[in-house]
Amino acid sequence: MKPETEVREMSNLTLEVRDGEEDSMTVAGYAVKWEMKSHPMGWDSFREQFKRGAFTESLGKDNQFALWSHDTRTILGSKENGTLRLYEDDIGLRFELDLPDTPNGQNAFGAIKRGDVKGVSFGFRAKKQEWDERDPENIIRTITQADLFEISPVAFPAYPDSGVAARSSDPYQEYLDEKRQAEEKELRQRLILQTYL
Description:
It is a single chain. The protein is of the alpha+beta class. It has one domain (about 5-165). It is about 20% helix and about 35% strand. The chain has helices spanning about 55-60, 105-115, 170-195, and strands at about 5-10, 15, 25-35, 45-50, 65-70, 70-80, 85-90, 90-100, 120-130, 140-155. The two termini are about 35 Å apart.
């Protein structure tokens, strides 16, 4: 089963307006902070965090976009053309975004500068992850490698309501299903070996 694209809206990250040239419309901030645990998510209320370097491979080969509130019709910048710059540092995944001199870019800049929009969200697909289930009341998903698709300034910086997600797209449920399938396969292989011994 191919992993689905996931979106995370970080509640305690802020956008910064860059001082500089009078005509500049550059904003910056962190899209992700390493090992910062999320609020409970998903059907089984797991929490999530990203390991430092989770996006290194993706940043080296993929083109990421800056969108306005995840709307692919409102592209604010891209890594490929240099208007979106992404860096992994000791704190997290930092970005700088030169907003376009268009009505959408001006509206975005105005909303960020006034403080109406303070949050940052990002869309990704997990490639490698670890699950810590030692405490059933505090399950932690650690993403160690992921493809990054986009970052978005957002008006409502909170994790999306897990109730709207289909059960089949719950990452923890997918992990449990894969784990069960692997255990069943191993059991079948042991039974086949015992039959021939």
